[in-house]
Amino acid sequence: MSLLPFLAVAFGAAALAMLVRDYRRLSLAIGLLGLVSATIASLAIVPGDRLTVGPGRLEATEFGRLFLALGCSTGLIVAVTGLATAWQRNLPAALLGGFGALGLALSIGDPLIAIVAILGGALVGSLVTLVRPVSARNVQVASREFRAIAVAGALALVGMAWIARPLGPLAQEPTVFGLAYLAVALAAAIRFGEIPFHRWAARLADSAPEIALPLLLAWAPAAFAVVALAWMDRSIAPLLLPLDIERATVLAVGIMSIVLGAAAAWLQDDLEHVVGYSIVQDAGFVMLGLAILDPSAWQPTRTWILVFVVAKTAFATWAVAVRTRFGTRRIPELNGWARRSPGLAIGLVAIVVATIGLPGLIAWDVRGRLIDLSLTAGPVRLLVTVGGLASLAYYGRIGLSGIRATSALVAAGATERPTRPLSDDSGPDGLAGIEERAVRLWRANRAPIASVGVLVLALTAVSVAAGGLGGPAAAAAPAPEPVAPTETFIALPSGEPSTEPSPSTEPSPSPSLTPSPTSPTSLPTAQPSPTALPSPTATPTVKPSSAATPSP
After folding, report:
1. How far apart are the first and last CA of the chain?
2. Domain locations along the chain
3. Within the chain, which residues score under 70 in pLDDT?
4. Alpha carbon distances (Å) from 365 to 251, 301, 303
5. CB–CB of 548/523 below 8 Å?
């Protein structure tokens, strides 16, 4: 199976880099080489490859392939940029172990096992917050991440397992499914640090290593949301239950995060806080996708997730480069940064275009599509639309500071122009001399190296936002199919649902409310399959599709 080389490289290199972490240069070399190898191995994944493992199965998907390729390649650029700015010695191992676990999770059809794999990957990623000597601050930072992971994981596992068991008479109660759906959706909100669950994320952004924020606050929560969306698409959406209150709760979390996240980012003076709240804001659109409960949300939600993770990675790396070059993270002290660093200025403009998009770009279209599917016309929809564009306020504030008169801190910062250190003939000869000269050359050009890294990440984000790299097609591809039968509801002659599991382990070939494996974005047909009939008390959701209305 083509996924196995990737898993072997990711987990093997991560373990080896951690084992030799006391030998810094060797650990660094293993980590960077592992990221290069993992990127190549992810590109070699063949969608559709399957491998049976005991009672379960691994299945490579087009979305998983692109997610891992983007994650490992941008992780490599982040690691190289970190070497030129704010290095964290555990970063390569944490990236490899984290993406290895996420790759495993995205290839598992059973959502319970997939969530466990994601939680394991998140814990591995949290290693980046622990450095020697271990201090009380390091432990406190890690504990915040661990608590959020534990609470979100417990909620998701309980919600999914609750309706996976025989329910008996409870199968006739829409509230049972509503509570399970709400638990999983709120678990995703906690992982993203959405408002009102944002305090841990704000503190993490303030105290965790800056270079690690994309992995901690974007990539791992995004994979969690992908698995949650697939579970909802299979287990909740086909039942057409009246979940108005539950959906309204999830929508409220998304709306508050979009609007208040933008306001909080605009009010912050610290760049890392701006990055943290911008992640909270843009993740709010993922919450809108989880609130729709319709197959039509499948592609736009997953497309936005791809745009989100790459754009936030570029923005966080940009903030690290600015802080390292000018010695401050405070926006009022960064006056004139754009005059001093035109490369970083171009990078910020590209990040803004990737995040907000322009009419005609995929990023713009899918965000508007999520608003259309989740909200009807009215003041709330207008508020969310304006809130999505409100990120221009804090990006504009940063940009305005860059064209003001240059401050003393910015004037003292390093230039982007490449330089060559003075030659020193007194140094050692042979390989030792070559190594010493290479290190001196690297140190003398940290500023231009960081700017190049930011530009590469920003342009990658623009490419994904424009629909490049096969993003929309990968987002439309189906999720891995579960092997074991899940709870279904078979109509008895009396009209009451039975909670006996369907004997078939594969999707029914008959027309069904379940999205087709070959076209997950297609709408359900008018005649529901007998294995997916809703409870007699169920009514359509708030905004049901006309094609998804159950027959009398």
Report:
1. 46
2. 3-406+445-476, 414-441
3. 127-139, 141-142, 167-168, 170-172, 206-207, 422-433, 435, 484-552
4. 20, 11, 10
5. yes
